[in-house]
Amino acid sequence: MSAWEPVIGLEVHVELDTQTKMFCGCAVTKGDPPNTHTCPVCLAHPGALPVVNQRAIEYAARIALALNCTVQPRNIFHRKNYFYPDLPKAYQISQFDEPLATDGWFEYWHAGEKLRCRINRVHMEEDAAKLLHAGGDAGRIAGSDHSMVDFNRGGTPLIEIVGEPDIPSPAAARDFLQQLRALVVELGVSECVMEEGQVRWDANLSVRPVGSTELGTRTELKNMNSFRFLQQALDAESARQIGEVEAGGAIVQETLHFDPDTGTTTPLRSKEEAHDYRYFPEPDLVPLVMDPAWVDELRAGLPELPGARVERFIEQYGLSRGDALVLGSSGDLARFFEAVAAEGVDVKAAANWTMGEYLAHLNESGLEPGHGHVTPARLAALVKLVQEGTVSGTGAKQVFALMIDERGEPAAIVAQHGLAQVSDAGELEEVVAGVLADNPAQVEQYRAGRQQVAGFLVGQVMKATQGRANPQLVNELVRRLLSQ
Ligand SMILES: [Zn+2]
Fold this sequence. Notes:
Layout: E1 4-15, H1 54-66, E2 70-71, E3 74-75, E4 78-81, E5 91-94, E6 101-110, E7 113-126, E8 130-134, E9 146-150, E10 157-163, H2 170-186, E11 199-209, E12 219-224, H3 227-246, E13 254-259, E14 264-270, E15 280-281, E16 288-289, H4 292-300, H5 306-317, H6 321-328, H7 331-341, H8 347-365, H9 376-387, H10 393-406, H11 410-417, H12 425-438, H13 440-447, H14 453-464, H15 471-482
Parallel strand pairs: 12-13
Antiparallel strand pairs: 1-10, 1-11, 2-6, 3-16, 4-5, 4-15, 6-7, 7-10, 8-9, 11-12, 13-14
Helix pairs in contact: 2-3, 5-6, 7-8, 7-9, 9-10, 12-14, 12-15, 13-14, 14-15
Bound molecules: zinc ion (ZN).
Residues 21, 24, 26, 38-39, 41-42, 155 line the site of zinc ion (ZN).
């Protein structure tokens, strides 16, 4: 055990799924030809004036309320000045010391424990345009011949959730992000498609002696959008810092780059301070005054959030914490599971089928929960067939596969393909007698006292019936015939 522990903080950016941009009427789109959704405002022509998108403020407030933040009655926009080719104004309209919402918290599950991370603030800003680097290696700027800029994304509403450094490990940081993403998706304010960078984050990490409450000097990892790389990068950086301080060195505050190929972090640039951006109040926008009645209305309209639903699943259905997390974190999957359970089948079986065959089917087909031919009613009907003993567990898996291919009702599929479980003792006794006759050596061993051979013979009977035999009955018959 090391005498040092990491402390992690996350800042999460989410692009909001509004119809139009943050400060102009251009459409927010995905996949359209470059530079087809631009106007004088988002291209920063002289004299063009921004107008705030009310829906974006509503969405941002929903996120802030779901994170238990206080929505500030008055908040203002600031200019954050810096030059980059994806930023035509040479400043980003953001929020600084008077943000939309402050002082919240988010609870998440990690390793069977519920952890709480304080949320410093939730603020609004606009996204930059998108740079495309051509002629180089895998679209990276290093080694490219030239770069192009697509302003379609420029001005997309963006919110930043700034967490306090309360996260105790890289694995906990991953759980935090996955569960935070599920929360935002549930709110219906962003689909949070990771591959499209709709959600991305910066992480900061410092180390301190175990048990200390003081924070060490932190380093930052910027602009990540893969849960796996985040955890790898934080593991690498935590080990690097601990090695450094144990060797008597000091940590330098800087921004690092993580290389997944080598698994190491290297300095990118020294850390900017807030004053480097010369923040000042945006003179083209008036302060935003939040009507308390509207904020109350938004709070009352929040849906059941994933954290609360996971708890309800444990309580209401008696699910284990692990199962409740799998089934309760995503709204669509949770609704599917609850619809199956509502058909009056055994809840544990409904949970197992939803997490097992059904989830595997979704992963394979790329379908979203609730879409496709396996409806909750059909899955419930299949679970019932198993409960009643009409099909065996093995047979039911065959029926499930056929439900996808043939798009039919389970009972019809069972009848059509002759998949009903054989529970007829007379019929099975003949098969068992045949198997015993074919395996005289094993029969001999059993009678000489090697009881475990019975399992092999049961397996042979199941094989001979293509898994359709009632296993309990086969077991009884094998033992009865062997002891005759
Ligand atoms: Zn525009």
